[in-house]
Design brief:
Layout: E1 7-13, E2 25-28, E3 39-43, E4 48-52, E5 61-62, E6 68-73, E7 80-84, E8 94-98, E9 102-111, E10 120-130, E11 135-141, E12 151-156, E13 160-165, E14 168-174, E15 184-187, E16 192-196, E17 201-206, H1 207-212, H2 222-227, E18 237-240, E19 245-251, E20 259-264, E21 267-271, E22 277-282, E23 287-294, E24 301-307, E25 311-316, E26 319-325, E27 330-338, E28 341-349, E29 353-358, H3 378-398, H4 404-410, E30 411-417, E31 431-432, E32 435-436, E33 442-448, E34 455-458, E35 471-474, E36 500-503, E37 511-517, H5 524-527, E38 542-547, E39 552-557, E40 563-568, H6 574-591, E41 599-600, H7 607-650, H8 660-707, H9 711-721, H10 733-746, H11 753-756, H12 771-785, H13 815-826, H14 833-838
Parallel strand pairs: 1-5
Antiparallel strand pairs: 1-29, 2-3, 3-4, 4-6, 7-8, 8-9, 9-10, 11-12, 12-13, 13-14, 15-16, 16-17, 17-18, 19-20, 20-21, 21-22, 23-24, 24-25, 25-26, 27-28, 28-29, 30-33, 31-32, 34-35, 36-38, 37-40, 37-41, 38-39, 39-40
Length: 852
């Protein structure tokens, strides 16, 4: 047990599932006994008001029934409690309760009991103020130097200060530039209010300036405050602290000086009356509450600071004097005199743990046993250490953090796609052109071996496919003893008919690909059942596909050779049918028991068509930046014209508008037109990115077939070419892919150690054009053609000069190098139409198939 734990003097738990905050705790002699004993007053967001007077029989006792003097339900949430002289005509202490829309002042009184139940306490409502605005917090004091009574100032959620002179409302003022309310405190020495604005500045406002400023029945603009009656509200002093403040406290232990303490998110500050920093302290932990109090040393101030590590630190100025551990995270801390015990620390947590504690240590009765000394054998220890290191290394290589069986058996995820479409389509867009959009149901099953908690299921499909629901959370399903997040994946294939319909085959097409195999051609009817009518000879050599929206793809199988041709008018449409063909061929031959089936691609990689899609996507990105910049300029112009017109309309002497209204109308139309253009460009950019993704999948597939890459190498290509699931203006596809390919060229595909020493830029910015990216893609294909292999291990970083025959082009790092390699690097990878010229296939009827 730690010596530095807070000594529990008295504690209790308030209610069930109630919430509390820093304003919900208050100490004071609220029943006016005059004996100097403080009562603990607690309010909750559930509206319960409780008053305690602890008197435990022995240290550490829990709450007894007689400790609770009063408990009443006020129905409205209690935001803050204060004790002060809030009733006119008397200097007795009363209790002020701040609700979200109401301020109530109560008197608390006790009646001596004649029976064993003891004294009885009750509260009486003295007065209340219904607030027109939602309250945030309040402060009180002798505003303006009044004697014998306290005034109340309430800050609303929209930054208005409302001052109440006890039973009457005095005035309300808006703080200039207020966006979000901050903590509020009153300094009696300077007669000013101190708060922290949303600009992260400590601001001080004199009470006299607030009292004589323009009345704030409703929020007014700066120009109206200049022209209206009264004075403009000005700030006395400001100090930029650079962070949001949690609380403010004013400490004044003598008349000579006072200090303003501000608790920030990472620091706490001590300021002078004029806003100058007296000292500041950077905190090691995230604070939750604080309380400055009087120090025994002359000229110093002690501060209690609670943090989210269940610790309470005591500082003397900036020096840490004591640290004590609490059983909960405090959101409010107070110091008072309870049951003749002075200096009791009262803490309250957000879930209602109320504790009275004191500082100190208890003697530790534990005595460590003596350890038998023995002679050390360093040789044996060295052998044992090496053996343990070998065991750890083997375990990390084979199993990872957990054993594989445990990881696989804890939770299993399986997905089953319904063989039939939904009878009523669940698609958000019912139709695309003249085609109805179908929907299919996917059943995901989760099987768990252990009691699990907070399992989150996320489902992702590639655009333009959409889901009716993509996030599911199971509260009581997952268990992870080490607290480390674990991810389990399950992939499933959707039916081709979801986005593709049978179509009429086409003889001619702009884009064609030929896939070679090592087995006899298979009837397309057995590969794609449902996409063609069965013929008499049960052999279908040509098949047409039509995507939703109108795009057509034709698939032809050769009768004599072992080739398949895919052709379409759009380059990006080739990928889906090509990928489906390869997958279905592999599944077909696996069912036949043939294991040596392989596909290959012997033509040139169609980089030219791929580069055209890259240029189109990049052009839309540049166009989007220009449109957004132009829209921003027009919006600034629109607001400037609005301010001019508002000034003219508020002027007491009418003046001509000088066609400002016409200019406002024209600018408004331009803003609307530019906004429509931005939306249209964003839609076009989304469609272009979807096409680019499809074309990228096709290029990766062809490179893998061309160079017979392993699945791991194909995965590296996919990670490099498809790093983003969504394209944005801040981080786009071009700069991300260029950085990834440059890294591959610099490491595993490098030609020499000189290339490995080249440093890549650490920032990803949108490039000026796509020429560098296209040259890097061509250079990547060139190095793969010359024997380079993709690998992420450190061994692959070594130069591969003995593997790649011939001279290889280095990564261009200057304009001269780029011009020198431009011709050499792109020569072998031109338009894929050269493939058609090299391996001619006769034009034949689609119904006859391909014969060579």
């Amino acid at each position: 047990m730690s010596l530095f734990k807070a000594r529990n003097w008295w504690s209790t738990v308030l209610g069930e599932k109630e919430e509390f905050d820093q304003g919900c705790l208050c100490l004071g002699d609220v029943d006016n006994t005059g004996n100097g004993q403080d009562k603990i007053i607690v309010g909750s967001f559930m509206g319960y008001l409780r008053i305690f007077n602890p008197h435990p029989v022995k240290t550490g006792d829990g709450a007894q029934a007689e400790d609770l003097l009063l408990e009443v339900h006020l129905r409205d949430p209690i935001l803050q409690l204060e004790v002060g002289k809030f009733v006119s005509g008397t200097e007795m202490l009363h209790l002020a309760v701040l609700h979200s829309r109401k301020l109530c002042v109560y008197s608390v009184s006790g009646t001596l009991g004649n029976v064993e139940h003891g004294n009885q306490y009750q509260i009486k409502l003295m007065y209340e103020h219904n607030l027109q605005r939602t309250a945030c917090n309040m402060t009180y004091g002798s505003f303006g130097g009044v004697k014998g009574r306290d005034l109340i100032c309430i800050q609303s959620m929209d930054g208005m200060l409302m001052v109440f002179e006890q039973e009457s409302y005095a005035f309300g003022r808006f703080l200039p530039g207020s966006l979000l309310p901050g903590p509020l405190a009153y300094s009696s020495r300077t007669d000013s209010f101190i708060t922290v604005s949303s600009c992260r500045q400590v601001e001080s406002y004199k009470y006299q300036v607030l009292a004589f400023a323009t009345d704030a029945d409703k929020r007014q603009e700066t120009e109206q405050q200049k022209l209206g009656s009264g004075k403009r509200l000005t700030v006395d002093w400001t100090l930029n602290i650079g962070e949001q403040a949690l609380d403010i406290c004013i400490v004044s232990f003598n008349q000579s000086a006072s200090s303003v303490f501000v608790l920030g998110e990472r620091n706490f500050f001590c300021l002078k009356d004029n806003g100058q920093i007296r000292f500041m302290k950077k905190l090691d932990c995230s604070p939750s509450c604080f309380l400055p109090y009087c120090s025994v040393s002359e000229g110093t101030i002690n501060t209690l600071i609670g943090n989210h590590n269940n610790m309470l630190h005591i500082y003397q100025d900036v020096t840490l004097k004591w640290a004590t551990q609490l059983p909960h995270i405090p959101v409010a801390v107070r110091v008072g005199c309870v049951h003749d015990l002075k200096g009791v620390i009262v803490t309250l947590s957000d879930d209602g743990h109320l504790q009275c504690s004191y500082l100190g240590t208890d003697p530790s009765l534990f005595q460590a046993p003596k350890v038998e000394s023995r002679e050390l054998h360093y040789d044996e220890l060295d052998i044992e250490l090496k053996e343990l290191q070998r065991i750890i290394k083997d375990v990390n290589k084979s199993q990872g953090i957990w054993p594989m069986t445990e990881r696989e058996d804890d939770l299993k995820v399986s997905a089953m796609v319904s063989p039939n479409f939904d009878s009523v389509s669940q698609a958000t867009d019912v139709a695309v052109g003249t085609d109805l959009v179908p929907s299919v149901t996917v059943k995901v099953t989760l099987q768990n071996r252990l009691a699990l908690q907070k399992a989150k299921l996320s489902v992702y499909v590639q655009p333009p496919l959409v889901l009716t629901c993509d996030q599911f959370t199971f509260e009581f399903m997952d268990r992870n003893p080490d607290g480390i997040p674990r991810v389990i994946q399950c992939k499933f294939r959707l039916p081709l008919k979801l986005i593709c319909l049978p179509g009429q085959p086409s003889k001619t097409a702009s884009h064609k690909l030929t896939i070679d195999t090592n087995k006899s051609p298979v009837s397309l009817l057995s590969l794609f059942p449902g996409f063609a009518h069965q013929s008499e000879d049960d052999q279908v050599n040509v098949m047409g596909f039509r995507f939703l929206g109108g795009s057509r793809v034709t698939l032809l199988a050769s009768k004599t050779s072992q080739r398949y041709r895919i052709q379409s008018e759009q380059f990006e449409d080739l990928w889906l049918i090509t990928n489906e063909l390869i997958i279905r061929l592999q599944e077909y031959f696996e069912k036949q028991g043939i294991k040596d089936f392989a596909c290959s691609f012997s033509g040139s990689v169609p980089l030219q068509e791929y580069f055209e899609l890259i240029d189109h996507h990049f052009e839309l990105r540049i166009n989007g930046e220009k449109l957004e910049e132009l829209l921003s300029e027009r919006a600034v112009q629109f607001r400037a014209i609005q301010r001019r017109l508002l000034t003219r309309f508020k002027d007491k002497t009418p003046a001509p508008l000088q066609h400002l209204d016409t200019l406002l109308d024209g600018t408004y139309k331009q803003v609307i037109a530019l906004a429509d253009a931005v939306e249209e460009n964003q839609d076009n950019l989304f469609q272009s990115f979807t096409k680019l993704r499809s074309a990228t999948h096709l290029v990766i597939l062809l490179i893998g077939l061309w160079q017979k890459l392993s699945p791991d190498q194909v995965a590296i290509l996919e990670a490099a070419f498809l790093p983003l699931q969504q394209d944005t203006q801040e981080l786009g596809w071009e700069e991300t892919v260029d950085a990834a390919i440059s890294h591959l060229l610099k490491t595993c595909l490098s030609k020499s150690s000189k290339e490995q020493a080249l440093s890549l830029s650490s920032q990803l910015n949108i490039p000026k054009d796509t020429s560098r990216l296209k040259k890097h893609i061509a250079l990547l294909c060139d190095r793969l053609a010359k024997g380079g292999r993709l690998c992420l291990s450190t061994d692959a970083v070594a130069p591969q000069t003995m593997v790649m025959p011939g001279g290889c082009t280095t990564i261009p790092e200057s304009d001269l190098e780029e011009r020198s390699i431009e011709q050499d690097s792109t020569e072998p990878f031109t338009n894929h139409k050269h493939l058609i010229a090299e391996t001619p296939m006769p034009d034949i009827s689609p119904l006859q198939g391909v014969s060579e």
